[in-house]
Structures are given as structure tokens and as C-alpha cells.
Amino acid sequence: MSGKREADLVVVGAGAAGLAAAAAAQAGGLDVVLLEAKDRIGGRALTDAASLPSGPFDIGCHWLHDASENPFAAIALATGRRIRNTVHPGRMPRWLAVGGDIKGEAERAAAADYNAAAFAAFAEAGAAGRDVAGATVLDASSPWYPIFRGWCSALMGVPPERLSTADYAANRDTGENWPVCDGYGALVAAAFADVPARLSTPVAKIDGTGARMRVETAADGAIEAEDVILTVSTTVLASGAIEIAPGLPADLEAAIEACPLGHAERIGVALRRKIDGIPDQTAGHLFTKAGDQIGIMIHEFGRPELTGYLSGDLAKALGAAGEKAVFAVFRDALKEAFGADFENEIAAWTCSQWTGDPHIQGAYSAARPGEAHRRPRLREPAQERLFLAGEATHPERFASAHGAYMSGLRAVGQVRARRKRAGLE
Fold first, then answer.
1. Strand, coil or helix: what is 180?
2. pTM of whole model > 0.90?
3. Of the candidates 174, 180, 171, 155, the residue with the CA atom closest to the CA atom of residue 74
4. pLDDT value at position 101?
5. What pLDDT digit, counting tens, does each position of 140-174 carry?
6. Looking at residue 117, what DSSP letter applies?
């Protein structure tokens, strides 16, 4: 067995939540062991720096959401990271293709009107205390509904029929969304590069039945600790991949089941040259003849590059089918819009596979309709010495890296409070 067998605290998972928790606990003088199943840190924050000649590409989180309140924005500015903090010109979408037909200004305006009205309807219903499926407050007969359905899935991870209006209204959003030019994932990895983590060390069991917590791993044996912070996704928790003894309270299990991960995959395509006539940072929709809506960003950061956002049921299927399947769908959608020869303009591509990743199993959490009230339970102690963290556990900043970061700090505060009650501090 490598490393120590005992610690004050074991943190499971080295995503933003686990990294923040481990760093904060170590800064406070605790002896911490950080365990990560993958061969890298960062979790759903991952930048592919090598695949695209156009530049680094975020496989996972990309936007510094709520920038004025986002700790990663402060880190980015303090460390000289390049960011884009200008707003998109005009409303979404600025570019629209339906069944291979590139639409004009009138159609784009109509789609933008529907998008804005639909999200406003979600917020209004949630603010009024209604926890219902988003689709029930929309005009689903509108010709713009199928396009919005895909766009909703891209932003929220789930389509309107599986979106909780109360959950949507609870999600705090300042509207300040700053992409990191060199990658959000690279920013997270650099910020926590000095935090020791045991990589390729998946946890099989967390046992709280003894005098101390016992964390069992196949690769590294067992580690005993006073407390454990568990940061894996709700979908992984619900799958039973990590055995927890003596089991979790019934209300917590219900909360975990109520807030599963939705599905979204990102694909980056480097072009041999920019597309004529389309400005930089043009965000839009591709709605294919097959009925798939794909969000698209054209010429991000001024690069000859396209970003595709495949989401919801489409992402769920493709995330399990493999990277080549993701590329094929996006490539065919681009050929439908720009012509069969457009494939020759593609220099390289890279994409995510979050749904098929056994350590993640999806994108970001979304409460089921009627069950948003269960989400706050995720932030409360799981057992006397077991605490959960991760984006799903933040009541207002879920589905974000900075929400995960904040949840890690909250969990450390809970550990310190328990230790004080127990006379350990």
C-alpha cells in the first residue's frame, strides 16, 4: 500500500469540490488524503490542449458563470489568464439553420422571442412556488418549441418535460458568463496543482460503523479517518458504485435520486479557415432534418473553430455510443447546413464523453419536476462523520464549477464544526 493509512480527513473525488475541500482543510492544519478514481484532477473541468490546432478546447465546463461572484474568475484575473468578458452581440440565436436552410433575421428574431419567453415562463412558475415540468408552462405547439427543447437541454441538461420550474428558479444566475481563452479546465488544474492527490484510486466502500471512518480502495487498501467528504456525482452515488455502510438516511437517498445528472456533450471542430460572412462569437442553433437541435458557437475567441453542444436525449445516446458517433452527428449537421464539401474544411476535432464516463455518468444535476424541494438535503450531513459536496449540493449554484468549489468549502466547515463538538479542536 502506498501512502498513509490514517488521516484526519479523507476527501473522495478531485473535482472542483474535492480540490477546494482538500486545500481548505490542509490550510487549516488537518491531515488530509485526497482520493481520485481518474488519472487526473479536475473532474468535469477538463481542457484538451493538444487535439485542435486552433487552440485549447474545454471538454467540460467552459464559462465562468456569475463572474462577479465566481471565485474562479478572481483566480483567473489574479493569475493573468486570458478571458473574454464581453457580451454576445444581440439575442440568441444570432445564426439559425433548420433542415439545412439558413434562416434570415425574421426567423432568428422569432426563435429568440420564443427562447426568451420560455425561460421567463419557467422563472415565473418557479417564483410562484410551482414545481412542475417546464413543458407544461410553454406553448409546445409553436414551431419554435422543438428548437427551444434542444437549447433548454443544452443549458439545463434536460428537456422541458423533465425540467423542474422550481429548480430553474432557484438557480442563481447573474448573466455574467466569461469563457476562459486557454481553458476553464486548465485554470482549475493550475489553481490546485500543488494539492496532493492519489490518482487512479477509486473508492469501493466507505464504512462508518466503527470508531473511525474507514475508506476502502482496491488500489491503495484502506484508510481510516475521523471524517470523510464525498464529492462524486449524484448519479454515481445512486448507482451504488461506492458502498456506504451503514447506509444513508432515506430522505437523503430520496434527494440523491431526485437530482440526477442530465446529459450534455461538447464537441470542438478546428477549421482550415473561418466561414465567410459569419462574425466571431456567433452563437446559434442547428436544427437538423432528423429533428436534432445542436447548439453551436462559431469562431469562439476569433479562432477558425466551431463548438457543438449536443444535449438531452441525443447526448445521452451519443455519450454511450462513443466519440466517433458524436463527431458523425455534428459533421453531418454541418454538411447539411454548409454543403457536402464542408467536411473538407474540418482539420481536427475533439469531444467529450461524460455520459459514458463511469466516474461521472452525465453532465450536471437537474432536479426532477415536483422534487426540487429535496435538493437542500444534499448539503446536510449524510452521516455524523460523512459529508457530501459537489455541484448538486449547492442550493443556488448547482450545475456549475464554482458551485462545486463553494460546496467543498462548506463541507470543510461542517467537518470543523463536528470536530469542535467532539473536542478534537
1. strand
2. yes
3. 180
4. 96
5. 999 999 999 999 999 999 999 999 999 999 999 89
6. H
